[in-house]
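Q: Make up one entry.
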Amino acid sequence: MKINQIIIVLGCIISLICCKQEGKEIMADKNNITSEPVLFDINNDTIKENLNDAIKKGDTIAYLKSLKIFTTNGYEKEFLYYAMKMAEEQHYPLAYENVYTILLRISDENGYRKDSKIGEYYLLKAYELGSKSAKYNLENFYKNKPIPTSASVLK
């Protein structure tokens, strides 16, 4: 069980590091070109519009753009709220998985209890909605045991 969680966390960390490398944008100032990252601003109209389109209209592309912007700028914890909203309002499997992953990553630094069933609930919901990666993770987690329902873990 712990080995699977460590593998998942390491994979996510590696992908975040790679994304941070890709997240740098070239900014041109007439005669000066730098490779400094663009500053993240939660109040940016484009970010607000993408989040609104994702949560209210179910726009998965806007959700993915928002996820990338938040994570490449180091605001994954702050994205947890939007992932939960997208999951609950649009029943988007990836959003359910993102909630699980974010909770798993912040567990040590913010006091989220690893034995809490909330993260497992979100992973199970992703599985129930057809996520193949959630299925893979749960099959490894439960081995030869039947995978429970999301509702049953919160009882």
